[in-house]
UniProtKB/TrEMBL annotation:
It comes from Pedobacter cryoconitis. This is Uncharacterized protein.
Length: 68
């Protein structure tokens, strides 16, 4: 059985898959979203904060269209 790399942060995995472009596609009017440490995107910062409360790593990253 292959070992799973538990040390790779979810945010790094999201960036490698070009996720910012995919999040903005269904909502072209949105200029910013918030990414939690587990890789879940949220359009409201308060929703991201609520979700992050349940995570070990409570980091939230603000992603804007200009960050791409």
């Amino acid at each position: 059985m292959a070992k799973r790399n538990k040390g790779t942060p979810a945010i790094k995995a999201q960036k490698e898959t070009n996720a910012p472009n995919e999040v903005f596609v269904p909502h072209p009017a949105v200029d910013v979203y918030y990414l939690t440490s587990d890789g879940s995107p949220f359009y409201l910062e308060s929703a991201a904060q609520d979700h992050a409360k349940e995570l070990n790593n409570k980091t939230i990253q603000k992603i804007t269209k200009t960050n791409q």
